[in-house]
Amino acid sequence: MEFKTFAIVASKAGEAQEAEARLKDRYPHVAPEKADVVVALGGDGFMLQTLHSFMERGTPIFGMNRGSVGFLMNTYSEDDLPERLADAEAIDLTPLKMTVEDIHGVHHQALAINEVALLRDTRLAAKIRIHVDGVVRMEEMICDGVLVATPAGSTAYNNAVHGPILPLDAELLAMTPISAFRPRHWRGALLPRNAKVVFEVLDPLQRRVRAGADFGEVRDAQTVSVEVNGTVVPRLLFDPEHNLEERIIKEQFVP
Fold this sequence. Notes:
With 255 residues, this protein is α+β, with helices and mostly antiparallel strands. It has helices at 14-26, 44-54, 81-87, 157-160, 244-251, and strands at 6-10, 37-42, 61-65, 89-92, 96-102, 107-112, 115-120, 126-132, 135-143, 145-149, 172-178, 189-192, 197-202, 209-213, 216-218, 221-228, 235-238. It folds into two domains: 6-93 and 233-251, Probable inorganic polyphosphate/atp-NAD kinase, domain 1 (Rossmann fold, 3-Layer(aba) Sandwich); 96-228, Probable inorganic polyphosphate/atp-NAD kinase, domain 2 (Tumour Suppressor Smad4), CATH 2.60.200.
């Protein structure tokens, strides 16, 4: 891969800021809006922010870990950065589109690289009806919430609430309940990538629910539809030895 220019951006963490200063002193760089590729310094949270910031422009992102997790980041090194960028391998991600109608009839849209999640917003459990491709699949789930995760996001919040980890090339989405009270033993579902999911919030005035797409959040949700967005394709760059697919497989065997 050949890139003529690159930009360097960093999270607000001290370690990331210091790394940014050193790299900018060492390598010629341009403003992010003029770059062929963006080098992001931080953790996975900052990588998500950076992907969202440049998603519409289609600028590929090469991350280096200066944060706490770094699952989506390459190993940090100050040496041979242009060569690493030239040798990097690309992985294209497919985000989800979330469309929310709130209790006031207002519609909201947002994109999610990791997951769309519904969460109760009061002391009362949420009551949610689940539609998949126009068919009611669950009349009522009483729960703290429910989410739909992409393969890229399946190792994040989805995994934390005991959802399945999906290989990156899986043509699937994971639907995972969050602290379901009824049905108590339902563990979720694997859905085709092109499925359209609609969550209907029952009693949305008393049992208020908020809907989130990565960082964006809408309160007082009444209906939430989720489907793959094929028009925007965020691109991650990895060192050849990073092998994100292998890391995802290994993650499934962590004790």
